[in-house]
Amino acid sequence: MLGINKEIKQMENMSTESIETKKAEDQKIAAPKIEIEAENLNFFYGEKQALYSINLKVPEKSITAFIGPSGCGKSTFLRSINRMNDIIAGVRVEGKILLNNQNIYAPSIDVVDLRRRVGMVFQKSTPFPKSIFDNVAYGIKINRLSNSRKQLEQMVEQALKQAALWNEVKDRLNESALALSGGQQQRLCIARTLAVMPEVILMDEPCSALDPIATEKIEELVVELREKYTVIIVTHNMQQASRVSDYTAFFLLGQLIEFDETEKIFTYPKEKKTEDYITGRFG
Amino acid sequence: MRIIEADLNKLKEKMSLMGVLTENAIEQTVKALVEGNTKLSEEVIIADDKIDTLENEIDKLATDVMVLRQPAAGDLRFTITCLHTAGIIERVADHAVNIAKHIRVINNEPPLKPYVDLPKMGLVTREMFRDSLQALINGDTNLARQTIRRDDQVDELFHLIYDDLLAIMQSDPNTIKRGAELLFVIKHLERMADYSTNICEMVIYMMEGKVIKHTQEAF
Questions:
Q1: What are the tens digits of pLDDT across the range A192-209?
Q2: Main-chain dihedrals φ then ψ at residue A60, nearest 5 degrees
């Protein structure tokens, strides 16, 4: 109550002009740092072009949702950000994707390290046929991120806690990961991604195979992850996009139609195609 | 047709009906005043129940649309606009009822002078309200902006009648009771016109996504 009274007093003391100046200054301060930038990105599966001149800036420590109808290129673009498309024969990329101002398609880039820095969680959870502990420890070990067993255990615990799974598995870390429920397996995959200290987490429809309760847990987790990581999530569920994301990018036929703050996309999109898609007129 | 379309059409129909009934209330209450027709004024009071019922129906329907259909973009802004505007229209109707109640007192008193400016004020107010609803139903932002500009005309008439009534009351204390009632009447009309501008502001939000209420946006 005292806090509110103090705020009211401050507002009364500010003139209208100074209120407007403060608002403008707040907006300048709030301009986010860009983590990922696509510059004129074109992508080809052999002769077939899948992405056309994508230009996009993803702010750091935010959640960006990619939406669009099936086949629009959103998953292709997602996989381009950690070069997972490289494993597909015949693909070709023109243009750039910058990760913290570094072009990830430059010849000097270590793709393995890139995929540690830009982790990925898939639609179908992919636990290894190993114990819960070993699933999370695997990436730490092969990247040589720990110096001792004790440090390894601490890192595994930390990752499982960040993935909101620790309390459910702490007493059975040696059990098989395949015995976990679908939602738990997905959180385990997220823990596995977090264990190797990424900067960016890519999620390709991470909840589409999960029930509503498990989905809610993943969504809550994603919102928490925003504090430390840049998250990009591909989703067919527009309500999910509006629930969890700060920014939304709408793709159609390989083109980026519109990118803006989620609140603006869902209340007043600039492009008619965006409006038509999110109001269910097609898609 | 999209599933939500049927719901949005129903909302539009109810808004139209509520608007028509309220415009009738304005027309009849002003007519009752000018003609000294107490019976007509009582009909305005009775008819208000239907308008109140419609407000509740629109509130419920809009809420259902939001929770069950999860509208976005234009659909969302339209639903929110209906929710807000139903409340505004209900208040306009209440002002018509309040005028009708004043008519009971006014008609028991001798007339001050022939009504000249007051029917004009009633007409402009009614036209503003009608146009604001038309702008809403048709998504017509040009009409909305024109209607907002007309509020100045109502304000001018308000001040004209106010000064006139004050002069009459000051010159003859026996006219104070009726004069005071008429002051209330013109205040109700002035508030109705203000509400019509509020509806037009919602139309601009609905169509353009811009919130212009409480701003200095010039028309």
A1: 999 999 999 999 999 999
A2: -75, 160
Residue B93 to residue B18: CA distance in whole angstroms: 9
What ipTM goes with this model?
0.76
How far apart are the C-alpha atoms of B208 and A268, rounded to whole Å? Answer: 8
What confidence tens digit (pLDDT) does each residue in A83-97 have? 999 999 999 999 999
Compute the nearest-CA separation of B74 from chain A (Å): 7
Token pair of A14, please? 């500010």
Write the DSSP string, A109-167. --HHHHHHHEEEE-SS----SSBHHHHHHHHHHHTT--SSHHHHHHHHHHHHHHTT-HH
Count the residues in chain B: 219
Please say whether the beta carbons of A77 and A41 come within 8 A. Answer: yes
A65 touching chain B per CB within 8 A: no
CB neighbourhood size of B117 (10 A): 14
pLDDT in tens, B178-206: 999 999 999 999 999 999 999 999 999 99
pTM: 0.83
Interface touch A267/B71, C-beta < 8 Å? no
